[in-house]
Amino acid sequence: MTDQSTPLLEVEDLAVEFATPDGVVRAVDGLSYSVTAGRTLAIVGESGSGKSVSSMAVMGLLQMPPARIVRGAIRFKGQDLLTLGPKQHRAFCGSHIAMVFQDALTALNPVHTVGWQLTEALRARRKMSRREATTRAVELLDMVKVPNAKERVKDYPHQFSGGMRQRVMIASALAMDPEVLIADEPTTALDVTVQAQIMTLLSEIQAERDMGLVLITHDMGVVANVADDVTVMYAGRAVEQASVFDVYSSAAHPYTRALLRSIPRLDRKGAGLEVIPGRPPDPTAVPSGCPFHPRCAYAEDVCRVDPPPPQHVLPYDRTAACHFAERVREEGGAVR
Amino acid sequence: MTDTDVVLEVRDLAKSYPVRRGVVFKREVGTVRAVDGVSLTLRRGKTLGLVGESGSGKSTLAKLLVGVEKPTRGQILVDGVDVSELGRADRRRLRSTLQMVFQDPYTSLNPRMSVGEIVGEAYAIHPDVTPPGGRDKAVRELLDRVGLNPDHVNRYPHQFSGGQRQRIGIARALAVRPRILICDEPVSALDVSIQGQVVNLLEELQDDLGLSYLFIAHDLSVVRHIADEVAVMYLGRIVEAGGDAEVYDRTSHPYTRALMSAVPVPDPTRREDRAIVLEGDMPSPSDPPSGCHFHTRCWLAPTVADPSSGETRPDGARIPSVCRHDSPKLAPQESPDHLAACHFALDAPRR
User: Can you tell me whether residue A132 is helix, strand or coil?
Assistant: First the structure.
């Protein structure tokens, strides 16, 4: 493992807005996180929490307008990518940060062979010859354990199963030897047995190359299995940031706690699921004060007025954005 | 079986689709056995969980049960009456006892119809359920029943969130006062915090109305939570079935074992628990493996193979020849209601 203290990727106080017909929507509001080599950060949240928008911002893939980065910094080894022009930003990411998307079928081009798509970047950026590029494509498919890679490079995406397509996506993300990989719900559309295969593959590749991995997901089971650190997002904000063990043993934000208690578990049969009342806020009308207060069991008057800033919680290497974070942590014990 | 508690019984049900090739002169080059001899029983007020990966045939089974597809073979008995022997009118009446809740609340509701029209449409098809004058009132009661505001009857689906749309889908299914609900992946398209709400609503409705559910899902945790009995499907066949505790705690089929082992436990201190990772994808149902369908991916077979006899699998592992040549029958395990289709079933729990 390389130096743990210098982060590869640092996001600081990022805020992203969208202009919509219903007014300006703040999709990400003051998000900060960092990833170091060899470690996995899981960003957890429900739909509309801003987890995907924030990674699109990191990759320079937001359509601007309607999107606008209001403030913040995205640094790779100290260099702020937001000071680059959009083109340079994307070019920089191309060789340092890669992304794996959720839906492998729509992310791959149906009219080109898998080999062609894997080598597109190599031919364009590294000026490889066709033959060199094809050899590299076979290597990449071997790396992600696609059987019979030599023949499969000539196949089209529809000839691959869902799990194999996701492997191809991972291979294409690895083509430029990235130092940070952002995986946005990489297993959501897959069956559990295939999900297990893909997560195992990602962990192996990460360990082999000492990559920083940002895993965006809503699945608390997957997070428990692969993450080192966890950022929980709600309504565009990071409501809790802590090590994976702290999050599961003593969640300090009521939302994290409620989320952990609401998932059905295979290893025990409970009576009646605990449920988070209400639903995630409409991004055009985020509640005042703490955005979680209408659904929160701990909410008091202060929560309706003052948005809680992230505050340090024992043992001080973790934060939670809740006025009563310390109390929630003490009662914690999210794992029943 | 003459058990009066059985509301739905499926006997040796099968559905195969022809595979055709050619543009002008289409010829049949094979068949896909989507459902291949499935037998199930659903009891009054109980939930039967049907688990399987995509391609296992669970959705085809649902289509057969609600009559969208006709079975190639086998019987469907509702309250002991064979559906295929009924005339048109009787069959229509029977439809109202068996309703379906769909997976995707975004595409299963017509965007041009108001909620009132969607839920009330069933009364036009089954007019005997509620007299014409009382229909508006019935629709409002249903919306209230599933936790929606009855004043929203004139709103359109796009004005609702995913969880609320699924409630509309449930209200629509309940409109004709069914006794059986076929729920095909009813919560898998919903956010985590919303899934629990819908699962709890289904449980409440079951207690209040005495409904029986066939709950189809790929998520074993949700099924564990809601089901009284569980059946596991692989390539069109049931490979294990039994009470919830039997299937989950005394698992006898190696496929069920692998499936459960693949579900990540939300507890970071138990990462090491995961033992079995299945290799490869599920084989195509148009060309299923011989003998036991699971033998190509089975983790148990190589461990029980006799090194001197037996056969070699494409991945190099030696497996017992019985696995490749004989299709195992569903056979009782320690308890007579717990069935598993594996030649070496009893070996599985001990490993």
Answer: helix
Nearest CA in chain A to B161: A279
Verify that A170 and A285 share a domain, yes or no: no
Percentage of residues in chain B having pLDDT higher than 70: 96
Both A112 and A91 in a single domain?
yes
- What are the structural domain ranges in chain B? 6-20+30-97+178-264+271-347
Any chain A CB within 8 A of the CB of B251? Answer: no
Q: Is B104 exposed, middle or buried (0-12, 13-18, 19+ CB in 10 A)?
A: middle
- Using a CB-CB distance cutoff of 8 angstroms, which residues of chain A are in contact with residue B163? 279
Domain of A299, in residue numbers: 234-331
Given a cut of 70, whether residue A302 has pLDDT beyond it is yes
pLDDT of residue A149: 84
* CA distance to A119, A261, B100, B241, per residue, from B63 (Å): 43, 34, 9, 21
Output the pLDDT for position B338.
Answer: 92
Annotate chain B with three-state secondary structure. CCCCCEEEEEEEEEEEEEEEECCCCCEEEEEEEEEEEEEEEEECCCEEEEECCCCCCHHHHHHHHHCCCCCCEEEEEECCEEHHHCCHHHHHHHHCCEEEECCCCCCCCCCCCCHHHHHHHHHHHCCCCCCHHHHHHHHHHHHHHCCCCHHHCCCCHHHCCHHHHHHHHHHHHHCCCCCEEEEECCCCCCCHHHHHHHHHHHHHHHHHHCCEEEEEECCHHHHHHHCCEEEEEECCEEEEEEEHHHHHHCCCCHHHHHHHHHCCCCCHHHHHHCCCCCCCCCCCCCCCCCCCCCCCCCCCHHHHCCCCCCEECCCCCEECHHHHHCCCCCEECCCCCCEECCCCHHHCCCC
Residue (of B147, B121, B123, B119) closest to B133 by Cα position:
B123
CATH topology of domain B6-20+30-97+178-264+271-347: Rossmann fold (3.40.50)
Share of chain A above pLDDT 70, in %: 95
Of B224, B248, B263, the CB nearest to A221: B263
B193 closest CB neighbour out of A199, A219, A276: A276
Residue to mutate among A144, A273, A274, with most B CBs inside 10 A, is: A273
Last residue of a domain, one of A227, A255, A270: A227
Q: State both tokens at A58.
A: 């990191």
User: Looking at the domain assignment, is residue A336 inside a domain?
Assistant: no
The answer to whether residue B2 scores a pLDDT higher than 70 is no
The shortest CB-CB distance from A221 to any of B261, B264, B277 is to B264
Here the tokens at position A197 are 């295969």
Q: Which two tokens stand for residue A23?
A: 């007014």
Q: Per residue in B231-274, pLDDT tens?
A: 999 999 999 999 988 898 888 999 998 888 888 888 888 776 66
Q: A21: domain CATH number?
A: 3.40.50.300
Q: Which residue in A has a C-alpha nearest to residue B225's C-alpha? A: A269
Please state, rounded to an integer, the average pLDDT across all residues of chain A.
Answer: 85
pTM: 0.84
Confirm whether A1 is domain-assigned.
Answer: no
Task: Inform me whether the C-beta atom of residue A263 falls under 8 Å from chain B C-beta atoms.
Answer: yes
Last residue of a domain, one of A207, A227, A247: A227
- What ipTM is given for this predicted complex? 0.78
